[in-house]
Amino acid sequence: MSETTEQVAGASQKPQPPRGAFDRFFQITARGSTVRQEVRGGIVAFVAMAYIVVLNPLILGGTSDVAGNSLEFAQLTAVTGLVAGTITILFGVVARLPFALAAGLGMNSFLAVAVVQDVSWPEAMGLVMINGVIIVLLGATGIRTAIFHAVPQELKVAITVGIGLFIAFIGFVNSGFVTRTAGGPPVQLGQGGSISSLPTLVFIFALILIGVLVARRVPGGILIGMVVSTVLAIIIQAIAHLGTVGNPENPDPNGWNLTAPEIPTSIVALPDFGLVGAFDLLGSFERIGALAAVMLVFTLVFTNFFDAMGTMTGLARNAGLSKPDGTFPNIRSAFVIEGLGAVAGGGASASSNTVFVDAAAGIAEGARTGFAACITGALFLVSMFFSPLIAVIPMEAGAAALVVVGAMMVTQVREIDMTDFRVSLPVFLTMVSMPLTYSIANGIGVGFISWTLIHVMSGQAKRVHWLLWVTSFGFLLYFVRGPIQAVLGG
């Protein structure tokens, strides 16, 4: 739990008696929070995640399926907000944790890049629904919780630290502070090794401003920094008229990463829910065969299962809600509702909805209960009608918040005893694999496999829970699924 915010300091004070049924239900006072603090945290979480309302339609709508059909942008915008809002509110009420859910970037990218090259969009969403049903069953039966208990405490902390590094790296990439190179090192500073774009300078300004506000324990520091940075970005855009990096017709390498922060001509737009129910549950099995479809489901389940488990672990620890064994309140309910997010996402063609690591921004702002999640969810529902306004927030402003929150989460590395190399190597591999492979699930898999092998081969097999053996073997299959699928397909 971070010690850099006023809210966390308050959470360590002696709990006060609840102030009515509402307070008692969400345990607001019991967790050292206030209604104002929860509202502020919920708003910050939404602002940090609002880019998904624009980015998810861009990813899913930018690819045609095997039949040559594509999903319509306006409809994707509507269902992205609908599913995220509904599932996040349900999560807040049932699990009562300050986590927010939305369309997972790893999942939607996988669908757009790989899955719909072989199946149609309705069939792909049917696979997402099957994945969600499996996740729900694993959560409801306690299997997911049992696997969570089997993970050593050191790896749980390493997952939190790795997520901190991962979201900070996401912030650096999304802001243009770090860019990919065609040759030479994998990444470089800015464009050509130097900072040359105004949007990246906005990111730097936002990072310093938020950092100063958080260091000075200013209430709402993250939200204030993001709002001020957005205003600055609007002014810069009005003067410089920059484009966007990913514009397919006229890309601007020195432009904004996602959308240009311009005041929209219209603020309100009625949502179109035409994609709700547009799925084909078993069509993919007929089109590509049972074995190939099962391999796709296996990939979806593994990514969904461990990505969410790792994210929840990190968020719970960052909120100070973790118990000594790494578990957190209402863990089984949290796992079940997260699985329902995949079912709902597939049913509405919004892609699987999962716990978002960006919700850490709201936790850093003081969110400690499910009431904050309800606020975030309500804002997602409202966003369906104000999608033009949401697009004003530049990704550079949200990216700065992610870097700050990542720095907060990395401080928990102090809880790991690194003197035993059997521990330090798997912990290190877990932490660095997440940002380097751009995947939480990959980092967890590398950590599980290396922990198991090193302990068994160095005479410490008793420290390896049998479930860790099973999940490590599952990850091994996951990592070599490409060759396996090629053999089965042949």
Please provide the ordered H/E string of secondary-structure elements: HHHHHEHHHHEEHHHHHEHHHHHHHH
Q: Shape from CA axes?
A: globular
Mean pLDDT level: 86
Rg over CA atoms: 22 Å
Largest sheet: 2 strands, antiparallel
Strand content: under 5%
Number of DSSP helical runs: 22
Which spans of ≥5 residues are poorly predicted at pLDDT below 50?
A: 1-13
Q: Say how many strands there are.
A: 4
User: How many structural domains are formed by the residues?
Assistant: 1
Question: Strands of the biggest beta sheet: in what spatial order?
Answer: 1-4
Helix fraction bin: 55-70%
The helix/strand class is mainly alpha
Cα(first) to Cα(last) distance is 50 Å
Entry summary:
The longest helix is centred in the middle third of the chain and has 29 residues, at 290-318. It is built from 22 helices and 4 strands. It has helices at residues 6-11, 21-26, 35-49, 51-61, 73-94, 105-113, 121-140, 143-150, 153-175, 198-215, 221-240, 283-288, 290-318, 331-347, 360-364, 370-383, 387-390, 395-410, 421-437, 440-457, 466-479, 481-489; strands at residues 101-103, 178-180, 187-189, 353-355.
